[in-house]
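Changelog entry: the ABC transporter ATP-binding protein record was regenerated in this release. Current contents:
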Amino acid sequence: MEQPVLEIVDLQAAYGPSQVLFGVTVRVPKGKVVALLGRNGAGKTTTMKAAMGILPPRGGQVRLRGQDVTGRRPSALARLGIGYVPEDRRIFPDLTVKENLAIASRPGPGGRRTWTVEKVLELFPLLGRLMGRKGGLLSGGEQQLLAVARALVGNPEVLLLDEPTEGLAPVMVKAVADVVQALKREGVTMLLAEQNLGFANQVADWGYVLQKGQVLLEGPMEVCARSEEVVRALAV
Ligand code: ATP
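Regenerated structure tokens:
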């Protein structure tokens, strides 16, 4: 088997005294889209934060192209090739769309410059029409598109997307889904946290179902989507 781009192995994480991840193992192969599924509080966001070094793991390992990067700072992990779009997007509200993209634009590991601002705008024509608008004046869906585009111009080797469709109007859910699908066709490796099984099934190759900070099961996404156990695990 080819070495996965990102491997999260036996990850343990806690907020103060309360442990929330109990040995989570997730592998993201090159060019694949892997979904972390689970209801609110299952540990999807915590897994991403721990992988990104925002919440230093209490145990286990994070490996990028086989290299142990556990405990590195978020800025170092970004330079090494992990792109992260947090649930709350964190775009700069006082900067324009163009400026938000310009400050994030840089070559990836090895000097790779696949994703220039121009190339990204080909996939996000809506953003092209909003280049002069301040980030804070965008709708939630437009901000989500900008957050994904901004992560992409950093030329990551793997992109972590935390619930990209959450809270969006249906028309923007479709716009974000279209973008994620386009990225998949372009071969972008992604780890996607998602509660929406329908959306996950449209884009993901493989699913991991989290429950109470552990992997309940994993498998091909279309098998996960049909599994009654998975549907139960995701039901609120
Ligand atoms: P969500 O969709 O709500 O983000 P999730 O599956 O991503 O759900 P996490 O956010 O990873 O779940 O939360 C896992 C557990 O950690 C939950 O029990 C949650 O209450 C707890 N938790 C999350 N953030 C904190 C925090 N900052 N301090 C303490 N506990 C937290």
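The CA atoms of residues 21 and 213 lie 4 Å apart.
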